[in-house]
Amino acid sequence: MLEIFDYEFMQRAFVVGIALSILSALLGSFIVLKRYSMLPDTLSHIALLGVGIGLVTGTSPLYIPILVAVVSAMAIEYLRFKKQLYSDAVLSIFLSGALAIAVILINLSNGFNASLFSYLFGSITAVSEEEVYMSVAFTFLCVILILGSYRKLLFTTLDEQSAQASGIKVFWFNLMLVTLSAVAIALSIRIVGILLIGALMVLPISTALLYKVNFAKTLLLTLLISILSVISGLFLSFYLGFPTGAIIVLVALVIFVTTLAGTLI
Amino acid sequence: MSIIRVRDLEYRTKEQLILGGIGFDIQKGDYVALIGPNGGGKTTLVKVLLGLIEPTGGSVELFGDPYRSTRHYKKIGYVPQNVTLLDQNFPLSVYETVSLGLAAQKPWFSFLGKNDQDKIERALESASIAHLREKNLSELSGGQRQRVMIARALVSDPEILILDEPSTGVDIISQHKFYQFLKSLNTNKNITIIFITHDMGVIADDVNRVLAVNQELLYSGSARDMLCCEAVSQLYGTKSHIVSHHHHHHDCSGSAC
Ligand SMILES: Nc1ncnc2c1ncn2[C@@H]1O[C@H](COP(=O)(O)OP(=O)(O)OP(=O)(O)O)[C@@H](O)[C@H]1O
Ligand SMILES: [Mg+2]
User: Fold this and answer.
1) What is the pTM of this model?
2) Which of A53, A127, A138, B5 is deepest in the core (most CB within 10 A)?
3) ipTM
């Protein structure tokens, strides 16, 4: 038995890590194919705003970010649906706005310290038992919702107009996708960190796309790459002592670059 | 029986009137060309028929039912404008793309059964793309991709097929084959077809109905009579631009509009 699993916090980190890798692979695939790659970054900064609120008011640093991210995600999707503004401009406005308020709040709470650093880049020691249950339960919910509506979601992602003309309620599927992403991102900030969760959602699917296979295979590849990145990232983080999120993203990036090099040769 | 019945249809945005006073009937088995200048409101009219946008006035009946009370999604297949511009890198096989046409009718948590697979096979066959089934969309030509989208629209066995400028980006020879293919769907499967086009030459021969739209309905009737219609002639410049393949002699006295 590896000594790494003697530590209870590492067992927790592995359970949460694998759950999050499944979440980010499933949600990230649809989000990237929607040309919505900015969304995870925006939502993670909004989650940081939630952390700031939590620090200032002394309330839960887990539930407040989830709540803030979900509400903002719905607002973003509504604005996009109304088509008054370019969707990347909407995302950019939310990102900078949330970051500005978050920085002020965290400053107010004198929180510019080690705990902030762990929110930015992730920390395996930070995972609580509550987060383990939350993450596993939410991953199950997500897998069920996404697999249950797989084709409808895919059609909506490919072509909203045709999907709607065939009778699919595209607004609700878009809303489902961004809401689930908001929760997933708020849950992952402890382990992967705010600055890196976007990369974890975008890199595995981008790697899988290089193989130019059909959607089912692309999704499976994305899952494999994501899980592999998180597991090896956790090992490396434990033995080398680097911030978890940074190492996980680095592994995902190495897989991406290697694959890219392979396709270019 | 008219399967589409439009009366006094109006669609306006805050700023402008886009469609007004539109009324027409379409019968089962019709092969209809919808023409008009850029910005004339053709796409808007089609979107109203599909229920994608709500008209601001008038009524639309589909299959004899008032439009809002019963939606007939399954009975209408739709191929949008510019399908050839769809994301080139989207990782979808031809088979997967066609299967999306069944998505709306499948309940949550259901997989494709034998029956569904048969439907997909038939749609692939009727669009003559069965040999491409394992290819990714990115590996197809514009014309082939067009057929994939039609197969996707056909998979739910629609009674009406609506296509928005299906021949854009397809070369002349493929265009000709393409319209033959559409016509054969119309004749052999008795599917009512409505397509938007700018290509007057193609439509003159085969279609049995022409609707010309430029904010209002300029013309509704046979292709032959349209050649004599003043409003349409003005729209497209001189009459000599409209040439039928068979070079019939048209006697315009007393007909038109
Ligand atoms: N989303 C929209 N909001 C406001 N106006 C619109 C919108 N879409 C189209 N229009 C306006 O409606 C009118 C009709 O547009 P529509 O796309 O229906 O024309 P069309 O006949 O399909 O043209 P084309 O041949 O170029 O495809 C145009 O004047 C256009 O400016
Ligand atoms: Mg148009």
Assistant:
1) 0.89
2) A127
3) 0.87
Query: Rounded to whole angstroms, what are the CA distances from B238 to B3, B230, B257?
Result: 34, 10, 16
**Probe target for ligand 1 pocket from B12, B16, B35, B43, with the most ligand atoms within 8 Å of CB:** B43
Q: What pLDDT was estimated at residue B243?
A: 44
Domain boundaries, chain A: 12-198
Q: Mention the CATH class of domain B2-236.
A: alpha beta
Cα angle A13-A209-A253, degrees, rounded to a multiple of 5: 45
DSSP bridge partners of B216 = B214
Structure tokens at A203: 């890199």
Q: Residue B209 and residue B211: Cα distance in Å, rounded?
A: 7
pLDDT digits (tens, 9 = 90+) for B12-61: 998 899 999 999 999 999 999 999 999 999 999 999 998 888 899 998 98
Instruction: Tell me which residue in A149, A152, A214 faces B91 most closely, judged by beta carbons.
Output: A214
> Which amino acid residue places its CA nearest to atom 31 of ligand 1?
B39
Residues 119-178 of B with CB under 8 A from A: 134, 136, 138, 149, 152, 156
With CB atoms and an 8 Å threshold, state whether B92 touches A158.
yes
Q: Which helix (H) or strand (E) holds B10?
A: strand B2-12
Please, what CATH class does the domain formed by A12-198 belong to? mainly alpha
Q: Which amino acid is at B47?
A: K
Backbone Cα Rg of chain A:
18
Considering only alpha carbons, which residue of chain B is nearest residue A212?
Answer: B91
Best mean pLDDT range from B54-58, B176-180, B201-205: B54-58
Neighbours of ion ligand 2 (CB under 5 A): B 43
CB contact under 8 A, A155 and B103: yes
Residue B15 carries which DSSP code?
S
Q: By a Cβ cutoff of 8 Å, what residues of chain A touch chain B?
A: 33, 35, 147-149, 151-152, 154-155, 158-159, 161-168, 208-209, 212-216, 218
Among B15, B18, B35, say which to mutate for ligand 1: greatest number of ligand atoms within 8 Å of CB. B18
DSSP labels, B104-138: GGSPTT----HHHHHHHHHHHHHTT-GGGTTSBGG
Instruction: Give the bridge partners for B25, in sequence order.
Output: B5
**Placement of tokens 């990230």 in the chain:** A28
How many CB pairs lie under 8 A apart between chains A and B? 83
Closest to B8 measured CA to CA, from B19, B22, B18: B22
Is some CB atom of chain A closer than 8 A to the CB atom of B108? yes
* Cα-based angle A190, A195, A200 (whole degrees, multiple of 5): 80
